[in-house]
Design a protein that fits this description.
With about 900 residues, the chain is an alpha/beta fold. Helices cover about 35% and strands about 20% of the residues. It has a 7-stranded mixed barrel. A 5-stranded parallel beta sheet has the order 6-5-4-9-10, with helices on both faces. It contains 31 helices and 32 strands.
C-alpha cells in the first residue's frame, strides 16, 4: 500500500506520495530522476506499483537493471511538423474505425496535449523593420491548409490545444508559460501534488529538465500511444551523474558550457541512458544556464539532462511571472518529498563524470557536428580540409572560402536565456559605437524563442542596437536552426556558382550537420549569440577571431573582439534593467489572440474530410488496422546501405524543396508553383511527397554503388538505378522483401517519426545497424520494423554489400525478445555465404508486442476495440456506431 501524506498551503490540502516514508534512507541514494519515476509508479501503476517500486530500489545494488517499469506523464507537447503526421494518423485511424463500424470519436486523447506552431517559419525577409510582418504573412500563405487541419483537431479532439504562429518555440513556451514544476492533479475526487512530467515529440524536449521537470523526447508514434492512455514502458534507466564543481569564469557563457559538456559526453556510450547533473557547481548555475545545457541532450546522446530543483528554479518561476502560490507549492512539495537539491549529496550513479566549471573556455562547435568543440579562434583550421582552394589572392571585398553566408541568432537553445540575447545586444551596442556593420553577403537574423524577448530588448534599448547591425527580429520560431533559413544572399549564390567557394553558417542553434541549416551549406559553427554577431561583422571564419581585427571603425581603427565582448557584470546589469515578470502573460496572450489564426476556417466534423487533390494532407496507408507483423524468416535485398552518423535529417529532410527534386516534380505535377514549394517539414501530412524526399541529402552515399545519386538505389533484378521510392515500389509489386543497413549512431538528431514512416513506406522489414540512436530505434519499432545491431567488427564497410546480394533473416515471431540473437545469412551474388548473429535492438516486452502487432497504430486500434475503450478511460458503453 502506497504511503500517502498531506500538505496544506494557503488553506488548500494536497495528497502526496510520501517518498521518505516509502523508502527511508535509500531515498538519498537514488538519483533524482529515479525519485520522480518512483513517485510516478506509486501514484499511477495500481497493482503493478509494488513490483515497479522494487525494481527501482533493486537498481541501487548495481546501478543498472533489465527490469521494466511503466511511466505515465502528466502531459504531451508537440510542434506543428510532428503534430501534423500524428494528426494524420489519428484522422486515418478514425476513418478506419468508422469503416469497420465503430464510433470514431472513441479515439480521443486522455492527457492534455499542447502544440506549438514553430517549425514552419522561414527567413524570407531580413534586415528590415518589416521583416517580422512579411515572414508571418508568408507563413500563413504557405501553410494555411496545414493550420486548418490543426484547427480541425482542436474542434474535434478534447484536451488538444494549439498555440498559433507567433507564440514562440515549444521549448521556450514550455519553460516560460506551460511548465508548473509541481502539478496539481484532480483524480477520483482527490487533489494531488506531483512532479510535472511530460514527453515531447521533439528531441530537445529535455530543455525543460533545466528547471527540474523530468521530460524527454519521443517520436510521434510513441506520443500517440500516450495520448490514448498507454504508459511509456522503459527499463529502470541507467543514470550517468555529471558532477559540477567551481563556477564559470568572467565572460564565459552558458553556450560554452553546453558545447563542452556535449563534447565530453559524446565520448561516452549514453544510448538509452539518462544524465543527471549534481554537485556544488550546479548551485553556481542559473536556471537559464541549466536549460541551455539540458537542451543539448540529444547532441550528447542521452535521454535526459536533468537538473534537480533548488532556489534558482524558484527564482526563474518568479521572473517569468508564475504566481506566488505556485512558487510556494514547488518549494514546499519538493522539500517535503525529497526532490529538493542538496548540492553536497552524492546519489548512486551508473557512472560519474567530473567537470570543473572554472576550466570552461569560450567555445564553438563544428564545422559538421555539434560534439566537435573547438576553441573560438580555430575556425580557419577547422574548415581547412573542406576548402575549395579556388580563391588564392582573391579580392577580400568579395565572399571567398570561409565567408559567413548565414549568421543567425536562432533556436530555443540560446535564445530562451535572456542573458545570452542581452549579451549579443551589448556586443552589438559596442560595435555600433565603432560604426561596424556586417559584410554585405551575410544573411543576418534574430529569431527569439518567445515574444517576451522583444519586450525586454526594447526596454533595455538593445533591440535598436541589434537592428543597427542587421539583427532585427524576423519571427518567433525555429527558422534557421531547423533549416528554414530562406534563400542565400545574391553575392554568396553568385560566388558559389561562379567560383565554387565554401560558405559557412554561424548560428546559435544546436545542430550543424551538412545541409541542415541550408541545403547548399556543408559547413556550420554553433556559437553563442554574441559570437554570432561578431562573425557577422567579420564576414568570414578565415581568421582568429580572438586576435585578428573583425572590422575597422569609421576613423580606421582596428576593432578586436576584446573591445566588444561584454563582462559578466555588464550582462547582469543589463538583464536587471531589461527584465520584468509582468511581460510574460501579456506577451503570450497577445500572440495567442492572433487575428490571422482566429479567422482560419476549419472543419468541425468527427471524421476529417480527406481531399485527394491536397498536396499537404493525404490519408496515409499505414494509419489503420495494418497488414500484420513484419517478423518472420525471409530473404531481403539491401535497399540502401549507409555509413556512420546518418541523422534523421539525412533520412527525411526538413528544409526547402527544390523544384527539380523528386518531391518537387511530384508537387509541380499536382499543381504547385515551382518557385515556392515550401519545406519538407510542411509536407509531412502527405506521404506521397515525403517518401520521395528520403535519403536525398547531398552528403548521403548509398554504398551499394559508387555512382548512385543521393536518394537512389540499384534495383537488383533489373540493374537499373532508380529513386528509392520507385525501386521500393517494384520490389513490393513482386513481393520481394527489402532491408536497410547502416553504420554507427544511425538515426541521430531530430525525433521525426517520418524517418521511420519513410522506411515503412519503402517496405523495409528490418534495419541492421552498428548502433541506433534511441528515438529513431523506438520509431522503427512503432512502425513494426525490427531494428537489429550488427555484431562487433561487422559494419557496412566490412559487409561490402553489392546489389544482388541477399540477406536471409531468421526473426520468427515466437523467438523475438529484448536483446535476443538473430541468425543472419548473407548470400553473395557470386555464391559466397557468410553467417553471423545480430542482436535485436529491443528494450522492453511492450516493444515486442508492437512488433508482433505490426506497429503501434494497429496495436492501438486493436486494444481500443478489444477492451471497448475502458482501459483508455473513455467509457464502457457499446462502441459500435449505428452505421459506418
Amino acid at each position: 500500500m502506497t504511503v500517502i501524506s498531506k500538505i496544506t498551503l494557503n488553506e488548500v490540502v494536497y495528497d502526496v506520495v510520501d517518498l521518505p516514508a516509502e523508502v527511508g534512507h535509500q531515498l538519498r541514494l537514488l538519483p533524482y530522476i529515479h525519485r520522480i519515476l518512483l513517485e510516478n509508479v506509486l501514484r499511477t501503476a495500481g497493482e503493478d506499483a509494488a513490483r515497479a517500486k522494487a525494481a527501482i530500489i533493486d537498481w541501487l545494488a548495481t546501478g543498472s537493471s533489465e527490469l521494466e517499469i511503466p511511466f505515465l506523464p502528466n502531459r504531451v507537447m508537440m510542434h506543428d511538423t510532428t503534430c501534423g503526421p500524428a494528426l494524420v494518423d489519428i484522422a486515418g485511424m478514425r476513418s478506419a474505425l468508422a469503416e469497420a463500424g465503430y464510433d470514431p470519436a472513441l479515439l480521443n486523447p486522455v492527457v492534455p496535449v499542447d502544440v506549438s506552431t514553430d517549425h514552419s517559419l522561414a527567413v524570407d525577409a531580413f534586415g528590415g523593420s518589416a521583416s517580422l510582418e512579411l515572414n508571418m504573412k508568408r507563413e500563413f500563405e504557405r501553410n494555411a491548409e496545414r493550420y486548418r487541419f490543426m484547427k480541425w483537431a482542436t474542434n474535434t479532439l478534447t484536451g488538444f490545444r494549439v498555440h498559433p504562429p507567433g507564440t514562440g518555440i515549444m521549448h521556450t513556451l514550455n519553460l516560460e508559460r506551460l511548465a508548473t514544476v509541481v502539478a496539481t492533479i484532480q483524480k477520483d475526487g482527490r487533489r494531488w501534488a506531483a512532479p510535472d512530467t511530460l514527453i515531447g515529440t521533439d528531441s530537445h524536449t529535455p530543455m525543460i529538465n533545466g528547471i527540474g521537470v523530468l521530460a524527454w523526447g519521443v517520436g510521434g508514434l510513441e506520443a500517440e500511444s500516450v495520448f490514448f492512455g498507454m504508459p511509456v514502458s522503459l527499463r529502470v534507466p541507467d543514470v550517468v551523474g555529471v558532477r559540477f564543481t567551481g563556477r564559470l569564469g568572467d565572460g564565459v557563457l552558458a553556450t560554452d558550457l553546453a558545447l563542452t559538456v556535449t563534447h565530453i559526453l559524446r565520448k561516452i556510450d549514453l544510448q538509452d541512458k539518462y544524465v543527471e547533473f549534481y554537485g556544488p557547481g550546479v548551485s553556481a548555475l542559473t536556471a537559464g544556464d541549466r536549460s541551455v545545457v539540458a537542451n543539448m541532450t540529444p547532441e550528447f546522446g542521452g535521454n535526459s539532462g536533468y537538473f534537480p530543483i533548488d532556489g534558482h528554479t524558484l527564482d526563474y518561476l518568479r521572473t517569468t511571472g508564475r504566481t506566488s502560490e505556485q512558487v510556494e507549492l514547488v518549494e514546499a512539495y519538493t522539500k517535503r518529498v525529497g526532490l529538493w537539491l542538496d548540492p553536497e549529496e552524492t546519489p548512486r550513479y551508473t557512472h560519474v563524470v567530473e567537470i570543473d566549471l572554472s576550466a570552461i573556455e569560450p567555445s564553438l562547435a563544428g564545422p559538421t557536428r555539434p560534439q566537435d568543440r573547438i576553441s573560438v579562434g580555430d575556425t580557419a583550421a577547422a574548415i581547412a580540409s573542406m576548402k575549395r582552394g579556388s580563391v588564392a589572392g582573391a579580392d577580400i571585398s568579395e565572399p571567398n572560402d570561409g565567408a559567413v553566408a548565414i549568421a543567425a541568432i536562432t533556436s530555443c537553445t540560446n535564445t530562451s536565456d535572456p542573458r545570452l540575447v542581452v549579451a549579443a545586444g551589448l556586443l552589438a551596442r559596442k560595435a555600433r559605437s565603432f560604426g561596424l556593420h556586417p559584410a554585405p553577403w551575410v544573411k543576418t537574423s534574430l529569431a527569439p524563442g518567445s515574444p517576451t524577448a522583444e519586450r525586454y530588448l526594447r526596454r533595455s534599448g538593445l533591440l535598436e542596437d541589434l537592428e543597427a547591425v542587421g539583427f532585427g527580429i524576423v519571427g518567433y520560431g525555429c527558422t534557421t536552426c531547423i533549416g528554414n533559413s530562406g534563400p542565400l544572399t545574391e553575392p554568396i549564390a553568385v560566388a558559389m556558382k561562379d567560383r565554387g567557394i565554401l560558405p559557412v553558417a554561424v548560428l546559435s542553434g544546436n545542430r550543424n550537420f551538412p545541409g541542415r541549416v541550408h541545403p547548399q551549406l556543408e559547413a556550420g559553427f554553433l556559437a553563442s549569440p554574441p559570437l554570432v554577431v561578431a562573425f557577422a561583422l567579420a564576414g568570414t571564419v578565415e581568421l582568429n577571431v580572438l586576435a585578428d581585427p573583425i572590422g575597422h571603425s569609421s576613423d580606421g581603427q582596428a576593432v578586436t573582439l576584446s573591445m566588444l565582448w561584454p563582462t559578466s557584470q555588464e550582462i547582469d546589469e543589463a538583464v536587471a534593467v531589461a527584465s520584468d515578470a509582468a511581460d510574460f502573460k501579456p506577451a503570450y496572450d497577445e500572440a495567442e489572440a492572433s487575428k490571422a489564426w482566429r479567422e482560419l476556417e476549419a472543419p468541425t466534423t468527427t471524421l476529417f474530410p480527406w481531399d485527394e487533390r491536397s498536396t499537404y494532407i493525404r490519408r496515409p496507408p499505414f494509419a489503420g488496422f495494418g497488414k500484420g507483423s513484419l517478423l518472420g524468416t525471409y530473404d531481403a535485398h539491401p535497399l540502401i546501405v549507409v555509413g556512420d552518423d546518418i541523422t534523421t535529417d539525412h533520412i527525411s529532410p526538413a528544409g526547402a524543396i527544390r523544384a527539380q527534386s523528386e518531391t518537387g516534380r511530384y508537387l509541380v505535377e499536382h499543381g504547385e508553383v515551382p518557385t515556392d514549394l515550401n519545406v519538407h517539414a510542411s509536407r509531412r501530412g502527405n506521404w506521397e511527397a515525403m517518401v520521395r524526399g528520403l535519403y536525398t541529402n547531398r552528403t548521403v552515399q548509398n554504398l551499394l554503388g559508387s555512382e548512385i545519386p543521393p536518394g537512389s538505389t540499384i534495383h537488383a533484378p533489373s540493374g537499373e538505378v532508380l529513386p528509392l521510392w520507385s525501386a521500393a515500389k517494384r520490389y513490393g509489386e513482386c513481393k520481394q522483401s527489402v532491408v536497410i543497413v547502416a553504420g554507427e549512431r544511425y538515426g541521430m538528431g531530430s525525433s521525426r517519426d517520418w524517418a521511420a514512416k519513410g522506411a515503412s513506406l519503402l517496405g523495409a522489414r528490418a534495419v541492421l545497424a552498428v548502433s541506433f540512436e534511441r528515438i529513431h530505434r523506438s520509431n522503427l519499432i512503432g512502425m513494426g520494423i525490427l531494428p537489429m545491431r550488427l555484431p562487433e567488427g561487422l559494419g557496412p564497410e566490412e559487409l561490402a554489400l553489392k546489389s544482388g546480394d541477399l540477406i536471409e533473416i531468421h526473426a520468427d515471431m515466437g523467438l523475438i525478445a529484448p536483446r535476443c540473437p538473430i541468425d543472419v545469412v548473407l548470400r553473395r551474388r557470386d555464391g559466397e555465404i557468410t553467417n553471423f548473429r545480430a542482436t535485436t535492438a529491443i528494450e522492453t516486452a511492450a516493444e515486442v508486442e508492437m512488433l508482433k502487432a505490426g506497429g503501434i497504430l494497429p496495436l492501438l486500434l486493436k486494444n481500443l476495440i478489444d477492451t471497448n475503450a475502458v482501459q483508455f478511460g473513455l467509457g464502457s458503453s457499446d462502441s459500435r456506431a449505428s452505421s459506418p
